Amino acid sequence: MENSKDFNELIARIYAVTNEKVLGFIAQRVNDYADAENLAQDVWLRILECRTTIDAETIENYVFAVARNIVNDYLRQIYRRRNADEEMQQLCEGTAEHSCESAVVARDLARHERIRVEQLPRQRRMIYIMSRFQERSVEDIAGEMKLSFRTVENHLRLGRRDIRDYMSAIA
Prior knowledge:
Blueprint: H1 4-30, H2 33-49, H3 59-94, H4 100-118, H5 122-132, H6 138-145, H7 149-170
């Protein structure tokens, strides 16, 4: 594109024509309309941030290529998380006959986690507690705290990393 104004006008025209198709494309693959809306926004943000040569003939294909890549990244993340949850579940089922020692270790780890959670910054601590102990979804937390979905995700990611690093150091 020759200048930013022409580029933004092209993006605006393509957005008006294809946004519903992009949203449908994503929603069909992720099976969650709220996540699909967030991912569709990510598609358009990524396109707006792109400064490579894009012309009117290739932009629609480019939009769907970006959408496909974003969906693939999202699904990879979901599958990784699901596999980790399954591994933890299998580990817990394999140790069904808890010994006194493992119960003491579990209580000690939980105590250390609570200590570290109390040291997190206030907002991050609240988000971590709501997610970890109250089992609230990111959408619920964002709505209740009047924060963006991405802000809550970021605080949760940083909180989890902090707790994980702390727990690894004491283990």
